[in-house]
Design goal:
Layout lengths: L12 H5 L5 H6 L5 H21 L6 H25 L1 H4 L17 H19 L4 H23 L3 H9 L1 H11 L7 H7 L8 H8 L1 H21 L3 H7 L4 H5 L3 H22 L6 H18 L5 H24 L7
Length: 333
Amino acid sequence: MSAILPDAAPANWVDRHAPAALRPWLKLGRFDRPTPVWLLILPGWQGIALAAAMVGHTPNLWLLGLFFVGAALMRAAGCAYNDIVDRDIDAKVARTAGRPIPSGQISVGAAWAFVIGCSLASLVILLSLNLLSIALGIGSLALVAIYPFMKRITWWPQAWLGLTFNWGALLGFAAASGGLPLLDWARLELATGGRVLPSPQLVGFLALPAWLLYASGVFWTLGYDTIYAVQDLEDDALAGVKSSARRLGAAAPRAVFAFYVVALALVALAGWTATLGWLFWPFLGAYGLALLVQPRRLKLDEPRRALRLFKLNARAGLLLFLALTVGFWRGVH
């Protein structure tokens, strides 16, 4: 195996530029590791872009900004909560033993205060959205609260992370569109010229592209977090921590490939049912390429490579956001 990986890049901006007194707090919120923050932000952006594209608009920049700040704050709160719950396990894993709580830099009580502070700040942002968005945001707390315990009871905590991280796709769609209707009869009448017939438009309103986008994101996360878990195969086994990477073993690269294929099929169906414009498809192809190169390069005995492949997913998710953004353009009629 390669040498032990640090919990964050040695040249991260926190260690280079942040005041020494702030570094443990910034590391508690994982601000030294931007990739996972983007992986939480992007599903929300994608939901906003999908809702806008369905009615022929580009995403609202103010709403994108709110989701950027809110997701970053909730990511920080979630990481601190996860570290409180996992402090004994983290102390046994070489890559995480230096985190602020297991290393003694921050007490458990102070970490709880950090969680509450970040949560209250994100609540202020959430309360500026519509009622359904507020309900969805509050509902996500159950997913967040349960996640740290999943590695103790199932081999598939990565699947639960998928349910949690991609909840923002539904929240973003609801914030941008005002709802998550199963069937919008007024728009359906408009789309079919007053006739309710089997058509792409009808399938779109029945299947609800936002839910397809969410399901696609779950499989995307299952793939990239399996790659991420490859870093800790040996330490997780010693600590008794379960993961999809441990469960799959040598089959992990093939499984990640299958997860990504399902993710691509679901988001393609979302684009088709939403009747997005033709520009959506070449960008979706670039997104697919960014995903499918990863399992081909994945090696279980090369944790550093696994980390590099994992980091590619921030760029891949941005490509999907761009695909949904340009999907509003359906050409000149």
